[in-house]
# Entry
Amino acid sequence: EVQLVQSGAEVKKPGESLKISCKGSGYNFTNFWIGWVRQMPGKGLEWMAIIHPGDSDTRYGPSFQGQVTISADKSSSTAYLQWSSLKASDTAMYYCMRHETYYYGSGSYGYYYYIDVWGKGTTVTVSS
Amino acid sequence: DIVMTQSPDSLAVSLGERATINCKSSQSVLYSSNNKNYLAWYQQKPGQPPNLLIYWASTRDSGVPDRFSGSGSGTDFTLTISSLQTEDVAVYYCQQYYTTPPAFGQGTKVEIK
# Structure
């Protein structure tokens, strides 16, 4: 069974750093784009960033570029999202997700499409 | 960036009746090379992560009941629930994956009348 297992809830103070994780299992981790979606309290879904674990290629949404860093460790099949200095406005649920990824020919670029797998979410609360 | 706009923001439908949700993209998400619309629909029930319902605008994901259907092309898309059930109470989101960032619509909340 394909699964994304996320790290537990976090409570932090403004200005602190944070790194949350998402471990993939049941599939070849290096072959699928994996990333994060934010959902602020009572609000909709916002696509943040993705990474291709095979070559560490990344894509960021404009609102999140420079605000967070996405990374991945192939050896542990784990993706990460980190902040260097949290703000109260970072308070949200963060969902790990996997994009369906197609390769057109061996050794070719992996194109990402719809999101076919979701983690259960990690709640991040930032409050003084 | 492509902007996705859903309508209505919420709707209340009687059990067994049809629910229709619209999604409009600010530019076409139809890729002419393969004639596919890069549009997905997700369902998010209270307290749960989203779940994929439909991709390529009209292909139901495995295990999705056939009362859910997607249609449309180019910039205008529709998600239809043919006969609303209690378990369909949720927020529904469309998402384009034609360009980066693959933006979501703002969501449509479906309730029982």
The two ends of chain B are 36 Å apart (CA to CA).
